[in-house]
Amino acid sequence: ILASSIDFQVCCQIAVGYRRGSGWYSNYPTIDVKTPQANVSGVSVGINSLVFGMRQQLLVGLGFAGFATGPYIGLTEAMTALKQSSTTWVDCRQATLDMSLDAGVGYTIPALVTGVINVFLTLANAAPISNHGSILSLPSTSMLKYKGSLPKGCAG
To answer: Which of 49, 55, 62, 109 is close enough to 82 for a disulfide, judged by CB 3.0 to 4.6 Å?
Structure first.
């Protein structure tokens, strides 16, 4: 069994916008990692790892009958936990947490409409379309890159 935990505190606002004359900007919250080491536990004969990733996106726009378009903001998180074999001299453990923010103008199309369009695109040997996507996107901004190991510095 491999178990891991990381405690962090997020403060303040997430904002993305456009200022005339200075262009796009983004403000993201301050993230403070409360667990300063790799809190990974378990007994293993080989190297064990756990990887978890998630993307959340909020689109606020105008829509009708399943079609929508408007600005969106996206938050992507990736977490890993790694534990070296318990049979080694040094029980090395590592935990990582990466968080990034992106934004833009996106769209959604009903799945039924997308399916019908994709039938004709397939017949024409064209690439299928997605039922959601981005018309305009800002570059992704890294909010946090945390890497901790126990004992300190044992993981590369």
So the answer is: 49
Tens of pLDDT along 103-113? 889 999 999 99
| Residue length of the chain | 156
The closest of 35, 32, 151, 33 to 94, measured between CA atoms, is 151
In Å, how far are 6, 77, 79, 106, 110 from 54, measured between CA atoms?
Answer: 16, 5, 9, 19, 23
For residues 85, 43, 81, 90, the Cα torsion angle rounded to the nearest 10 degrees is: -40
If we measure between CA atoms, which residue out of 81, 55, 102, 84 comes closest to residue 146? 81
Please check whether residue 9 is in contact with residue 34, taking contact to mean a CB–CB distance below 8 angstroms. Answer: yes
Residue given tokens 């590592």 in the structure block: 94
For 54, the token pair is 């998630």
Q: What is the pLDDT of residues 58-90, one digit of tens each?
A: 888 898 888 999 999 888 999 888 888 777 777
| 101 backbone φψ class: left, alpha, beta (φ>0; ψ -120 to 50) | beta
Element of type H or E holding 8? strand 8-11
**Per-residue pLDDT at 114:** 93
